[in-house]
Amino acid sequence: MGLLSHIPFLKNFAELSQLGIMGMNRRNYSYIGRYNPRSLFPLVDDKLKTKKLALEHGVTVPELIGVISSQHDVASIHDIVQDHPAFCIKPAKGSGGKGIMVVAGKNDEGKYIKSNQQVIEREDVQRHTSNILAGLFSLGGATDVAVLETRIVVEEALTKFSYEGVPDIRVIVFRGIPVMAMMRLSCAASNGKANLHQGAVGVGLSISEGKAVNAVQNDHPVRYHPDTGQDLFELALPSWDRLLHLACACSDMSGLGYLGVDLVIDQNRGPMLLELNARPGLSIQLANNQGLLPRLQSVERLKSPQRMSIDDRIAYAQKYFHVAPGAASILGDSFTVDPEA
Q1: From CA 319, how far away is CA 302, in angstroms rounded?
Q2: What is the pTM of this model?
Q3: Could you read off the pLDDT of 80-124 as tens digits, one per residue?
Q4: Closest residue by Cα to residue 235 from 213, 202, 212
Q5: What domains appear along the chain, each with residue ranges and CATH number?
Q6: DSSP 248
Q7: How many other C-beta atoms can be found within 10 angstroms of the C-beta atom of residue 297?
Q8: Which of 206, 198, 180 is nearest to 336 (CA)?
């Protein structure tokens, strides 16, 4: 049942359909299976391949420091990051934020300090890198490579909305048009990870303005961040049109028709691509308190939307994909607000 099992008060599939909720089977068959050629999956399942593709297309990504691909080279990691006090280690084939280690700097003793202020030894960093290569965090347990990147510096205006980790923006892009978006905010319960399944907060965003329309944690409505106490409905993303433009550009370069684009806003470099997902989850519907199907069906009725300019695609989304006052709710009592108010 997946997502649907988290909406216990809905009595039957007719009611689910009436509210426009898309389940996993329909997503897999009607959208992923139909619009995403399997031959293109490796481009998005492997973060290193995604990064190289993005660089070829002029898409901004975190700076690549280096790659470690063999156990023999694990000890060299300290030399590779010598000129980068703050950095990130991630598995190229990881998913759900697993295996990502963020180092914020070093102390006077030369030990590493993680983003949560935990002090770790050089050997801990080597061990983590070795586990990445062994496939401990990769899809299917396949052997992997460790990607070393510069650390993202969170946009100052967003720091109060997240706890320890980097908040990211997920945009679902269908046939080149952004149809739904949310921001994922890390918290203590999610161990600083911006992953909803680990307890992070999901904030639905209006496509028209990038403002909060709803918020959930563990599939239940929330109003305030559990750690910072920040009112989540004050969230309004800067550079929103740039973020949508970047999401559309990422869709174009990937060749996939149904795509999850994960973006971040770096304090120094602005919006940038974090990763792509050919099988984006469905919890974005809960975060927005709206079903995906009406928006997807609207785009399906368009003739060749990919041939439209990116500006025209964004204009279409912003005109038609807003949360209307009194719209049907999939969460019952919630804190949904009218983004146009």
Answers
A1: 14
A2: 0.90
A3: 999 999 999 999 998 777 899 999 999 988 899 998 889 999 999
A4: 212
A5: 2-43+156-320 (3.30.470.20), 63-150 (3.30.1490)
A6: H
A7: 11
A8: 206
